[in-house]
Amino acid sequence: FRRLVSRFWLVRWCCRGIHKPSSAGKSRQQPHRKMVENRPSAGARYEADLPKGEHELQLYSLGTPNGQKVTIALEELGLPYDAHFVNIMKGEQFSSGFTKVNLNGKIPALVDYGAPGGEPLPIFESGAILMYLAEKVPESGLLPKDPVKRSVALQWLFFQVGTGPYLGNFGHFFKYAKEKIPYGIERFSMETKRILDVLDKRLEKNEFLAGSEYTIADIANFPWVVCLDLFYGASEELELSTYKNVARWREAIASRPAVKIGMQVNGFASPPELQNYSTNGSKK
Q1: Mean per-residue pLDDT for 239-258?
Q2: How far apart are CA 232 and CA 228, in angstroms?
Q3: Are 59 and 71 a contacting pair, CB within 8 Å?
Q4: 59 and 264 in contact (C-beta within 8 Å)?
Q5: Verdict on whether the full-model pTM lies above 0.90
Q6: Confidence of residue 24 (pLDDT cuts 50, 70, 90)
Q7: pLDDT tens, 211-239?
Q8: Which residues of 171-194 are buried (b: 16+ CB within 10 A; e: fewer)?
Q9: In angstroms, how far is CA 30 from the centroid of its own chain?
């Protein structure tokens, strides 16, 4: 019963200020994290077409962990693509053009104009995009051909897909929430530490999450681990230095040239040539 009561009040606290925008001068929301009005409905909020570059792969995204997964994969695979900056703080993910690609109104979203069948293929959900891209270049090894290795890689990919929202909720309550709610911070801090411990134990005897080979499982998990420190500033809160195997893994992945570029594409603070980015891939 106490747990139910706690959850009830957590929901009440979470809803305050989301459905009732604060009046001018009274909001304690951080200026760089101005939230777009939340609504209980899906679909377009205004009419606007999406830009289209010269390549078959058109990415509409932002340099958040979920967006970085896809740009890292594209760089690792050496595929030509155009990456268009979507400013979610201005609600650009709710344009008619974007919601035609992803009705859920979330980045990243990809359109493949060279998909099998001859018709443009819209793809949303970062995990689905990673699988699709890796299968376009099977020789890359990012999604192993061996059925056992493939299964292991997919397990750790979907581990991230399932645990990512917990890390995101930690960031919300720890850094971005208008009002500090101890219950929310404690709950998601504890779960984030548990997730880090799972990764740390897995990496104790494995170079990468799927074993000895670097795969889309690593690409999916890496930006979220970086986010805890770089964006949330939670190194001390989460005691990140105690996860030695995660630190080793993170350093190894961060040193990869494709990762260095992929982490910057579509970023808020990135140079203009990376904020809206076009590349011929390995052909350049």
Answers
A1: 98
A2: 5
A3: yes
A4: no
A5: no
A6: very low
A7: 999 999 999 999 999 999 999 999 999 99
A8: bbbbbebbeebeebbebbbeebbe
A9: 21
Tell me which long-range contacts 264-268 makes (C-beta under 8 A, separation of at least 24).
Answer: 264/63, 265/61, 265/63, 265/67, 265/68, 265/71, 265/75, 265/83, 266/59, 266/61, 266/62, 266/63, 266/67, 266/71, 266/83, 266/84, 266/85, 266/86, 267/62, 267/63, 268/62, 268/63
pLDDT digits (tens, 9 = 90+) for 112-165: 999 999 999 999 999 999 999 999 999 999 999 999 999 999 999 999 999 999
Cα–Cα distance, 84 to 59 (Å, whole number):
6
Chain length of the chain: 284
| CA 109 vs CA 23, 61, 262: distances in Å | 33, 6, 16
How far apart CA 160 and CA 87 sit, in angstroms, is: 24
Rounded to an integer, the average pLDDT of 169-178 is 96
Task: Give residue 1's identity as a one-letter amino acid code.
Answer: F
Q: Residue 10, Cα to own-chain centre: how many angstroms? A: 25
Burial 222-233 (b: 16+ CB within 10 A, else e): bbbbbbbeebbe
Residues 171 and 164: their CA atoms lie apart, in Å, by 11
Q: What is the pLDDT of residues 63-100, one digit of tens each?
A: 999 999 999 999 999 999 999 999 999 999 999 999 99
Beta-ladder partners of 278 = 82
Query: Do residues 192 and 232 lie in contact, with contact meaning Cβ atoms separated by under 8 Å?
Result: no
